[in-house]
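Risk register update: the risk of archive-format incompatibility is retired. Evidence:
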Amino acid sequence: MTTHTENTQTDNSQTDGTRRDGTRTVLVTGATGKTGRRVARGLEERGARVLAGSRGGPTRFDWEDPATWGPALAGADAAFVNYYPDLAAPGAEEAMRTFGGLAAAHGVRRLTLLSGRGEPEAVRAEQALRAAGVELTVVRAAFFAQNFDEGLLAEGVAAGVIAFPAGDTAEPFVDVDDLAEVVVETLVQDGQAGLVHELTGPRALTFAEVAAELSRASGREVAYVPMGEVEFAGMLAGFGMPEPEAAWLAALFTTLLDGHNTPVTDGVKRVLGREPRDFSAYADRAFGPAADQDGVADREGEPAADQDGDPAATVAAQA
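Archived output:
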C-alpha cells in the first residue's frame, strides 16, 4: 500500500539532495541494527556516501543524546531515520520535531522514516517530522521475519520455544532485506517525496504457523507458547527490563497483534516491481541446510537490545 501526503517541496534535479558531482551523502541512523546495516550496505552499492550513525562508530549518533544529532547531520543530503525505541513511545513526537528542525537547518533535503503499522502514536510522530518541511517518505513495516534469527527471539528459537503475546493472530511478516531495498530506493530515486509505503510479506501467518515453518526448515522442533500481556511483561522484567518499560512494551505488542494489522499490502511490489519474499524462503535461508554463513558471521556480536537497533513495534527482538 502506498499513499500520498502533502509535501512542501518538489523533487527535481536542482533540489533532490545530490551534490553537484551526483553523489548523495546519506546519514543512516541505527546503522548497526538489522535494518540500518542493510540500508547502509545497499546505499553504498548504489554509489552513495554513507555516514553510519551509531553510538560507537565514527559518526556518533545516539537518540538519547540530542547533542549528537546536529553534528551527525552535518554534510548529509539525506537521512534514514530509524528511531529507537519506537515512534509510539513517550517522547518520540518531540524527538521527531527536534530532529526534523535540525535536518532542515543543516540543509538535509530528503528523509525516509521507518515506522510501524497501525500505531496512532507513531502517526503523530510522523507528522511532527513532516512539519519540518524536509522531503519525507514514510515506510511503515510489519513485524520482521528476521526477528526469529537475530536478536532476543533468536535465543528462544534456538531453545525450541517462541514465547510471545500474539494469541492466534496472523501477522504478514516482512523480510528485512525487502524493507532495506525499499528504503534505499526512497533515498536514491526521485518521485518518493510525500509517499507512505506500508510493507508486508505476501501472506499472514500465525506464530504457531511460524513455529511450524522454522521446524520444517531447521529440522528440529520449535514450539509456539502464547503468553498473556501481564505474563509477557513479567518475563521481560525478569530479563532485566525496567517494569514500566516492560509493561508498556507488552501492552504495545498486545495492541498491535489484535488482528488489525493482519491484511497484506502491495507496498513492496509498488516500489521494487516484484513480489515480496515469502516467509518460507526466509526460513530456508536462515535455518535450512544451506543457511548463509556469511550472514551469520555478519550478526556475531550484534546486541539484542541496543539503541542502534530498530523500532520495537516492528522488531520484537529488541525487547
